[in-house]
């Protein structure tokens, strides 16, 4: 299995990265920006309805878009600089958590993976080991031992409190940590994906590139009563996503799923999945989802967006043109133009 994938594939990105799914926080709207003319044609009226009713406000929107495009263009460069600064200045609290060890994984997870590695393994056989959530093709299983979760959170907390530079996971989360910049990729996330997750996703999501996931973006999202409480309805820049609850102590904040089409949340059948510390929820990246607000404490989750760069039958819709998406239950039509439906939360 390991031999089939290229270890050096960069997290797979689409060409529309600098034009699509730009999140306008003030209007809770995702937009596409190719030219000012196109943007005005596609969004001026929508923005007006959402309260963008002066030239000043409109100019501010254009300014924020240019800042976001600029951020995306320089993303790699800025990330490389932060990574180098972290390496130079940051001293880990628990250096061992950066290296994946079998002992961090629960016996249940190891049994599941062992089953999947078996030549006769089948999806039906595998389903006997997994908890199926009410949402279609969303699976739950215990991933990490509780002690490991505690040490990981302690390490990340220590990093948060250090003066080292921090990049944020994506445009929708204000707080969280990019695990590649901290040095988790090669020694932790890549072996986890290749040796443990790939056997599972190959059986569960062969139609969504699950058998050739060869890159990832891993980060930790953090919700706090004084920071982000929830996460808007979206889909991931991924074929398959693993979302593991690692701490700390929280109430509510369930994940919720809609459907695979980009319809407004108000029109979708919504199903909730509870976050339980140590347990992971595996789902298709294109499955629309969001997170409900926490009502107490702090919630930390490890998210691994996994992508397949060469999947012919992938869900990655660079092949499937679909309308841009809607948000937050409001019937807001974003771009009517057909475009890629991936690259959402970036
Ligand atoms: O907060 C969560 O559990 C969901 C996070 C998520 O969906 C994402 O970061 O893409
Ligand atoms: Fe997500």
Explain what the structure shows.
With 346 residues, this protein is of the alpha+beta class. 30% of the residues lie in helices and 22% in strands. The strands form four sheets. It has a seven-stranded antiparallel β-sheet. Strand 3 and strand 4 (139-142) form a beta hairpin. Helix 4 (107-117) crosses helix 8. The model is unreliable at 1-9 and 312-343 (pLDDT under 50). The structure holds 2-oxoglutaric acid (AKG) and fe (ii) ion (FE2). Residues 221, 231, 236, 243, 255, 289, 291, 301, 303, 345 line the site of 2-oxoglutaric acid. Residues 234, 236, 289, 345 line the site of fe (ii) ion.
Silhouette: globular
- Average pLDDT, all residues: 85
What amount of the residues lies in strands? 15-25%
Residue stretches low in confidence (pLDDT < 50, at least 5 long) are 1-9, 312-343
Quickly name the level 1 CATH class of the domain at 2-13 and 94-322: Mainly Beta
CATH topology of the domain at 2-13 and 94-322: Jelly Rolls
Read across the widest sheet, the strand sequence of neighbours is 3-4-11-8-13-6-5
Q: For this structure, what is the CATH homologous superfamily of the domain at 2-13 and 94-322?
A: q2cbj1_9rhob like domain
CATH architecture level-2 label of the domain at 2-13 and 94-322: Sandwich
Structural class label? alpha+beta
Spell out which ligands are present. 2-oxoglutaric acid, fe (ii) ion
Q: Biggest sheet: strands, sense, closure?
A: 7 strands, antiparallel
What are the secondary-structure elements, in order, as H or E?
EEHHHHHEEHEHHEEEEEEEEEE
The rounded distance between the terminal residues' Cα atoms is 29 Å
Helix content: 25-40%
Number of helices: 8
Radius of gyration: 20 Å
Give the total of beta strands.
Answer: 15
